[in-house]
Every structure is written in C-alpha cells, then in structure tokens.
Amino acid sequence: MTFVRKPYIAGNWKMNLDRSRALDLIKTIKGRLGDGSDREVAIFAPSVYLADVSAVAQGSPLGIGAQNFHFEDDGAFTGEISARMLREVGADRVLIGHSERRHIFREPNDWTGRKVRKALEEALLPVLCVGEKLEERQSNRTDRVLRRQLDAGLTDVKPDEMLRVTVAYEPVWAIGTGEVATPEQAAEVHAFIRKWIHNRMGGEAAQMARILYGGSVMPDNIRGLMQIEDVDGALVGGASLKADTFIPIIEFDQ
Length: 254
Ligand code: PGA
What we know:
Layout: E1 8-12, H1 19-32, E2 40-44, H2 50-57, E3 63-66, H3 83-88, E4 93-96, H4 99-103, H5 109-121, E5 125-130, H6 134-138, H7 142-153, E6 166-169, H8 183-201, H9 203-208, E7 210-214, H10 222-226, E8 233-236, H11 243-250
Parallel strand pairs: 1-2, 1-8, 2-3, 3-4, 4-5, 5-6, 6-7, 7-8
Helix pairs in contact: 1-2, 5-7, 7-8
The structure holds 2-phosphoglycolic acid.
2-phosphoglycolic acid (PGA) is lined by residues 12, 170, 175-176, 214-217, 235-239.
C-alpha cells in the first residue's frame, strides 16, 4: 500500500490498565517500532501514568498523549489539567472532543475549538474527534452534525497548522460496539471531512491533514479501512489494550 500522508495509528486506552501493565505494553510497542519513518504510532494514556509512560517511550518514535485537558493555563479549575502540565510530564499530543467527553461528561462543542487552539500554542499535537450518534445518522443528520463539530473544533486553525492537527472520525454507534462503519460509510464521511477542510482552508491544507477512523477497529478490519482513499490511520480503543491486538493493527501492511 502507498500513502499520500504518513499513516497514523493511535491507541486510546481510556480509563483502563494498571501502571505495570501500561508500562509493559509501552515496552512491547516500543520494541516493535522501527525508526518511525513510515508510520506514526501514539498512545493516549491516563494522565496519571503519562510521566512514567513517556519515560519508558523515550528514545523511540512512539508518541505519548493525554485523553483530555483544560484550555485555561491555570486557576481555580478543580480536577482539571492544563496543556503546559501535560507537556511537563512528557505528553506531545492530546485527544480533544472524544465522544465520551462530549456525551458522558457533557463537554460543550465550543470548548473543542479553544482546546485545539491552546494545544497548538503549547506545542501539543491535537486530535479532534468528531462523529454522529446513531439517531443522527438514521435521521440523515450526519453531515450537519459533522459540520457543526468541525466548525467549532477548527474555528481558529490556520491552513498551515493542519499539518499538526489530526481529525478522527468516530461514529458514536461504532465505538466499543463491535460494529464498524462499512467501507462505503467511512469513505463517504472521510471525503466529506476533507472537502470541508478544502472549502475552509484550501487545497494544500486538505491535502496534508490526516483523518483517522475510529470505532471497533480490530486486526481483521484495519487493512480494509486503510485501503479507503481518505482514511489516513486509526484511533483504536479496546484493541489497543493488548499487544496481541494492537501490534497487528500497527503492522497492518506487513
Ligand atoms: P473502540 O474505541 O476501538 O473500543 O471502539 C475507539 C475510541 O473510542 O477511540
């Protein structure tokens, strides 16, 4: 397989694993990565493990990120973590607007834009997550929902910054359900997202921006997904918790 953009495979551990299993898994992944020239691999770990996990990942191209943060620099925000704090413990990237943040924790859509901006300012690579719920798809509102999420999340992003911003399309109905989007569904939405970027920021930005698919990605469906023109990688939840399932996803073309 040949790719226009560097494939990007990311694991989102969510609130899983204990410290020792987390570190073991990082060691295993690190041992399987080459020099990182042909693909980008990253793990989004629970924040309390970031310092240890990034220490173990040191010296390898493995990216280490957080699953969330707050867009303010400091202040009375009990329970929150700033972008600078994440940098300090070794994170180089961050997820923004994951569907569980949006739907379980009711994070407002307009926060995503402030977070993307702050991440860029603090040299964290943002992965903006977007995706429609089942009832939104069933009532033909997928495009409208995605447009609203992209408008908010990328509101302050300049075209040349799209090299550092990744968009992850994760249909909510496919997350943790075992139900993966069909190639046609994924192709259609990924093309829609790239077109949105093209219209808003021009052809060059659209050409360099990476768009990941997420939602029940497994070793047996990653190859098919990666063959879709506008799919540049995957955001993997459940299957990123074990080397047995995550390594074959990273090595999808081998
Ligand atoms: P899943 O999760 O792979 O377990 O469906 C994906 C995600 O939420 O990022």
